[in-house]
Each structure stands twice: as structure tokens, then as C-alpha cells.
Amino acid sequence: MQPAKRLTEGALLSGLFIVMLFLALFVPFVMTIVLWFLPLPFIVYTARHGWRAGLLMMVVTVLLSFFIGGIIGFPNALLAGSGGVTAGALIRRKKEAFFVTAASSLAYIGVLILLYAATILIINIDPLAALQDVMRQSVEQAESMLGAMGQEGSQDLETFQNMIEQIGYLGPLLIVATGIIYAVISQMIAHVVMRRLGMKYLPFPAFRNWNFPRALLWYYLVTSVIFLIGVEEGTALYIVIWNLMPLLETIMALQGFTVMFYYAYVKGLPKALPIVLLVAGLILPIVLLLARILGIIDLGFQLKKRMESSN
């Protein structure tokens, strides 16, 4: 593509990002939707023209976002640009979708850590502590309302208070989970758009064929044993276990749901059946527990391969 056309395309995509950022910042009703589309201009432009062009577009867009959106626009542009350029560069090099997701997740996580640290050092505000204060105020208001009605504080409020105290230890988990989810959803959106634009990319494999590394099973077992034994609250090991446990449980559950999808595929069952089970797992703990058990069995004994052989 000629330099003039490439610059024009970059300017248009940068302008598109500014418009989406403006909507995300100042139109609350569409913020939760537009947020997932912010990395899209960077992914598309970098996938077409390479990481150097994408990085240049990112620098210009971040500066424009700072001048237009101020201190709020800057971190959003930096976050979307870093992951978008990373994903676009790897898509251009025809890397597998999981590899692209992993790399862009690391980019998002790295920027989130920098933003978190900058918030504490520059603005002198700890986002997690601020969130805890807001939640404590909500609990206090609920307790005062119950007291005004002549009722005592319920067990649910005490449980909620304990959960608030644990949030202070879950900062790493929240950052990692946010980076991974943002990478997965933004890349799925990019694949849809790139297919419409006729651009080449390696898509995600079917969900039934997803397989996490078997080493994660051993990490999960060791973490579970330490979690059951218990460690002293506030120690480094305590923080590590409390952040690893939910993440590994989620991975085991996802692996289990891939078994359900694979079984439905092999047996020719309706496609809606595993989807219903997946949705039910978000609501019913028993379904989530079953999926977790299936995931452990699959990673340990290669359950899906045995199903394929028997079929």
C-alpha cells in the first residue's frame, strides 16, 4: 500500500478509536459494549502494516486521547493500544490464536500493573482500598437500615464483610483475569471484523478441542492441598494461594466443559445441550463442580482421546 493511503487509513482508524473512546467515557449506557472494541483499530492496522506502523499509530492516538480525554483517556488508549498492537503483529505473522491471546494478555496485564502502580504513587489512591471502602459503606448502610427496622445484622452481611476483607489480597488475580478476558473478547471481535474485511488470520479451534497444559493439573492439586491445610493469613504464601486457587478452578471447569461439548459432538447430541450446561454452570454450583471433576479427569487420563478411540 502507498504511504499516503497507509497514513490516511491510520488517521481514519485513529479517529475511529477517539470516537469510541469518547462514547466509552461519556455515554454510560454504551460504555460496557464499546470498551471491548477499543483494541480493534490497532489490531486491524497492525495486522495490515506491521508493528512499526501500529506502534506509530498507537503513540499518536495515545497523545490525542490525552489531549481530548485528559487523565481518563490516556490509560484507556495505552491499554487498548498495547494489546492491540501486540495481537495485530502476531496475527500478521500467522501465529496461532491461543499464542496471540497469551501474548496480548501479557501486554494488557503489564499495562494494568503499571497503571495500578502509577495510581498509588502519583495520585496516592489505592483502587482496591477505595473499592473496599465503598463496599464497607454499603454494608454499614444495610446494617443501619436493618437496625431501623428492628432487625439484627444477618449472617449474609457478616459473610459479605469477610469477602470485603479478602478483596485486598486478590489484586493480582483481578489484574490477570481482566487482562485475559479483555484479550479473548477483543480478539474474537477482531476475527469477526477481519473476516468481513477479507483479512487472513488463524481462528480459535472449536471449543470442544481446547486443551490446557497437563502441568496445570499438578499445580491445581498442590494448591488445593495447601489451601485445605491452611496457611497464616497475610503471608506471601497466603496471597499466592488465594490468587491461584480461583484461577486454577476456573481452568479445570473450562476443561470439563470442553469434555461436555466433545461428548455431545461425538454422540451427535443437540448442540444446545452443552451450551445449556455451560450457562447452568454460571448459576448452579453443582454443575460447576461436575465440570471441574471432568476437567481433572480429562487432564489426568485424556478422557476425550478415550472417547474418540471408543467411538
TrEMBL record:
Keyword Membrane in annotation: yes
Membrane-spanning parts: 12-38, 50-78, 98-125, 169-194, 215-231, 237-263, 275-297
The keyword Chloroplast is annotated on this UniProt entry: no
InterPro entries assigned: DUF2232
Top-rank taxon: Bacteria
Keywords assigned by UniProt, alphabetized: Membrane, Transmembrane, Transmembrane helix
One Pfam entry name: DUF2232
Protein name: Uncharacterized conserved protein YybS, DUF2232 family
